Amino acid sequence: VVGLELTTVVSLAFLSAASWFSSAGSRRRRSVGVALAGLAALIGAATLLEYLAGIDLWIDRGTDPGLLGRMGGNLALLCFCLGGGLALGAAASRGAQLGADALILAAAAIGLFAVISHLFGSDLQCPLAAYAPMPLPTALVAFVLSTAAVLNRPARGLGQLLRSAASGGVLARRMIPVLVIGPIATVRLTLFGLDAGAFDGGFAAAFGVMGSVALLMLVLVRSARAIDRLEAVRRGNEAQIRQMVQDLSRRTEEVHHTNRELEAFSYSISHDLRAPIRHIAGFGELLEAHARDRLDAKGQRYLAHILDSARNAGVLIDELLEFSRLGRAAMQTRDLDLRAVVRDSWKQLEMERRDRDCRLDAGELPAVHADPTLTRVVMTNLLSNAIKYTAPRERAVIEVAGRREGGEVIVDVRDNGVGFDMKYADKLFGVFQRLHGEEFPGSGIGLASVKRIIERHGGRAWGEAALDGGATFHFSLPIAKEQP
Amino acid sequence: MTSEVNRILLVEDSQRDVDLILAALGECGLADDALVVRDGEQALDYLYRRGRFEGHAPGLPAVVLLDLKLPRLSGLDVLTQIKCHPELRMVPVVMLTSSREESDLSNSYLRGANAYMVKPVGYAQFAAAIRALGAFWAKVNEPPRRTIGRQMSRHA
Question: Do B102 and A325 make contact, defined as CB atoms within 8 angstroms?
Fold first, then answer.
């Protein structure tokens, strides 16, 4: 029975603990890991020094005879490399990281060699005095620890490749068993043939070479096939992407074209349709002033109708142009305090609520990320509606409140006005759609503007009400990027 | 007091608009101060004193009221020519138009327009706006004098 040396037990215990602590969350535990790894490296270095310089540093002595003795030079080198690698890996500099990679890889190679040597007889002799065959448990522990250290470096080196989810990583993981088991089997078979006297040295060498060539060919073919397959997929993807880019640019061109047409249309309405309406209204008013005395009641009523219609048409055209402008205007979004927007809009509507008992209750309103001008248009339109449709109430109460929901802010604007029939709720936000007659003036473009602006921000707008039971309009806007 | 120089140069192709504007200017006694030309070429002829305005009294109008949509030379073209001329650029130009289009607004101001007025649909508001415009530019505002322009162009 080969006794375990005290230094071996301590070093491997330190290295195990260091591996455990190296991926710990807390900074303190990680520094404990570094210290333990450093100690293991020191023990390894001291043992190596004893072998190389032929001196005794007294580190191998103990009271229990079972634990006496000096660890082998190969294990000492492994401890030095693994301990040093783990300690260096904690440093941030690029040089330290490269050094850690090299040391840990070297440790893994020594560990692998120790395990493999057991497959060919554990008492392999080496002319170097410092080399000592490791007992299988020691070899396995050393191998597992150093392999774990390689795999535990997911940011770089071989560990990164072996753990990668990309094709290279998949290929490497598939090849590793072939690359490890293949050579062992080949050499084992060669030795077996030699031992049995089935063939001589030359034949054994040829057999070994042939086995290696066959193995490498297998790896080569598998890798080449994998690369070919990946390339075929990539070509297919590229063709698909090219097609998509073409489709996209064609559609973008179409959208640009439509936008240009829309702009030309809106431009033409601005200049060419607004002018005649203006002339009808203008000359109508001049005629009214000029010929009022000469017109009888009927004539005056006709003229009043002409003027009314011309003015209405003018208002409609202006609002339609405004609506179109809201849809095209460039958006400049920023974090926005909705309370200020409500305050400004309410102030702007002073004229509309004069001589009325109209109260605004503004509750909590989280900040949003939106275009200030457009958001103000939304708020003014909703508040103006609320003021308008509470006109029959002796005491109008309008409530505005908002809340966070997911990544959005949902705002409610509630009134105690005449409401509307939910049957027509889907018509609310349509252009020129009105749910009320002439008793409430308006063109039916306000809510269409609200919806358009909100949708340009990626939000939703909806409303609910009961006939004669007040209405509530909701809209959502993106939440502010910076939370106070 | 020389009365040959008109204080207001109105550049407007639509007879109906001319009538409306003159009616509004008439309400503040400025109708006689306005000279009406019907397109951009004539406007420049007047300012350069060439063509049918050759031999016209020297001096610049206190303000040019300029429609945007004009036949042949557009309002923006006329504005550009005025504002690129070393002396004429001093004359205040007020754009007078039906359009509230963003592009019209920015193009006008970028080319040096001094003001931009959208003609309101209702006559009452329209007349009030024209009266305010006439009162400010032709009465309140002190227009540039030609001599200043000469000195400036010599320095330039």
Answer: yes
